Amino acid sequence: MFTFERNVVGVASAALLGACATQMSGSQTPSRGPDLARAASAQEVAVWDISIPPSGAGLPAGTGTPKQGEAVYIAQCQACHGPKGVGKPADPLVGGVGSLATANPVRTVGSYWPYATTLFDYTRRAMPITNTQSLTNDEVYAVTAYLLYLNGIIGENAEMNAKTLPQVKMPNRDGFIDMSGVK
Q1: 18, 69, 123, 154: which has the fewest C-beta neighbours closer than 10 Å?
Q2: E strand or H helix at 64
Q3: How many whole angstroms separate alpha carbon 116 and alpha carbon 122?
């Protein structure tokens, strides 16, 4: 009996939806569609076409040090990633070195990410999560430098910019296989 009642309700629901669709598609035809298939303008593409490859091609002008980055981190990142990148409520950004081959790997900037340029790219594009793309290039270089410093990858006086950032050798750089040329 239960199966029969459920099927009757399902048929009635489908009939109601069909009637609504028929009624709504009646004589009112929109004069113009929602522009879902229009080509994006060059300006619209430029706003989002900010990818930075491992080579660093396309890195913008700017500079930042770990000391400058600490201030940016405290103001813009610490609420989600915890003091000094330890995590909570969001993922940790520091630590985890040597944990990738264990049962509980900790994937952080220092233990997992293969390129420092990826850190810059991701931070510039997606952080802070509540106001993406709001950091200046100098702030992104600075917070990148701070996170690299906290992970023991660069010294406290290092300066990150378009020339120095691609030269940073990340601990897990050789832990990935380049599949870009594979078809």
Answers
A1: 18
A2: strand 63-64
A3: 10
